[in-house]
Design goal:
With 251 residues, the chain is α+β, with helices and mostly antiparallel strands. 21% of the residues lie in helices and 31% in strands. The radius of gyration is 19 Å and the shape is elongated.
Length: 251
Amino acid sequence: MSAPLPSTKVEVSNNYVHVGELSGSALYSAMWNALTPQCPDPKPGSNASCASNGAVVKDVSTVVGTEMTVGQPTFTIDDSFYKSTQERDAMLGAAVNAFQQSASGNKSCSSVPWLELDGACPHDKRAVSPPSGSCTGHATLCNAANSISVQLNEANEAEAAWMNIDIAWELGSGTPAWLEFACELIIDAIGALLTSAAPEVAPEDWALLGEVLPCCEGSCIGGGGDSSADAAAAAAHATSQPPLSPSRPAL
């Protein structure tokens, strides 16, 4: 009989946050670079936690109505605990991987047209200028889960480390032109991505996670959840985003 292995639960919120045109490797780098300074190395023989200061990524393009504008996502680690840099890096890599994947593909993103009437063409790399002098183009806007929680359990199922991250979006006025998201439609893709190490995490550190179980809030796909019920729940959540404050014991 083989010895039990550690396991990690990565829980993705059913509620969305807008991230504008921030997606793919740019989103991964922005989130990783924003959060790593918040999480110090633990001192020898001691544990550590991340600061709960929100880290802002400025000037992310989006579309309101038909006009290009900018907003800013804020990443906040509201609760965390780890005993080594390896645990910290593995959990942070899993969280950022999951968030990046939640804002990917045609389930979370859509091409949205925009129109600039002043003729200034500030987005000329993507624009086509009609005879009228106005500028038109398309922007790929994405939404993602508004919180990611990672819980690392030891082989005896005792909780070893955790990290809860909230994501918010600030926009001066108006509503972004694309606001659809459903966790259950992208959780399989998140699970597939979590089978390999995040780019900044050493494979041996990633191995600390053991078996990784991706979950939508309240239900783990592939872990005994009812996918048909989950799909129905997704429809109810796709256009709502009540405040969410994940707490470690709820995982």
